[in-house]
Amino acid sequence: MLRIGMLAPRSLRYEPHAITGYAENWNQLSAGVRADMHRLGVQARLSGEDMRGSPFWRLLAHKWAYEHAFERRARKTIRELAPDSIYRGLVQGMTVVWRGWEIALTMPDALTDPCCQESGESRIWAISPTGALQLFRRCSPGTARDIYLHVITSIAASHVGAAPRMATAEQSARRAA
């Protein structure tokens, strides 16, 4: 297990009130603990263990950094496909899974906006059960609607070629009797 905040001098580690006037040291320590909590979240996700069940959990600072790292890229299986559930899953950084479809938010790419400023933009991948890939831009409720329509129309298109299931006259007579 990682040792959180162990690189700090003893006075900074145990007596934060004793460093009044040393705000930069406190900020460095805080950033170090935040980085440690993030690293702990990544390690816990890779090992499959959740440290939030520990009795020491309530004593730790920067719990949000752990939770963000632990839940990042987690697979969230949803029962019903809806634009709202897609959007919520993507905002949380999860891979949304529905009937073999996987919808995931990628890391931002370095792009240039119209003002020639670098800006990061994430891409959303919608991967069908057959492996077909469709890319979308920007994580927004409108994009979630577009992804929803893409998935539904893809499913409908795959069923168009299939012969409809119709009951024969004999099967209808059996049901009526």
Quaternary assembly = single chain
- Strand content bin: 15-25%
Q: Structural class of the helices, strands and pairings?
A: alpha+beta
Main sheet specs: 5 strands, mixed
Tell me roughly what share of residues is in helical segments: 40-55%
Describe this structure in words.
The protein is an alpha+beta fold. It folds into two domains: 10-71, no CATH class; 75-160, no CATH class. It is 43% helix and 17% strand. It contains six helices and seven strands, in the order αααβαββββββαα. It has helices at 10-14, 23-47, 63-71, 83-91, 141-160, 169-176, and strands spanning 75-77, 95-98, 101-105, 109-112, 118-121, 123-127, 133-137. Strands 1-2-3-6-7 form a five-stranded mixed beta sheet, covered by helices on one side. Strands 4-5 form a two-stranded antiparallel ribbon. α4 links the parallel β1 and β2 (95-98). The longest helix is centred in the first third of the chain and has 25 residues, at 23-47.
Quick structural summary:
By secondary structure, the protein is α+β, with helices and mostly antiparallel strands.
Question: What is this structure's SSE topology?
Answer:
Layout: H1 10-14, H2 23-47, H3 63-71, E1 75-77, H4 83-91, E2 95-98, E3 101-105, E4 109-112, E5 118-121, E6 123-127, E7 133-137, H5 141-160, H6 169-176
Parallel strand pairs: 1-2
Antiparallel strand pairs: 2-3, 3-6, 4-5, 6-7
Helix pairs in contact: 2-3, 4-5
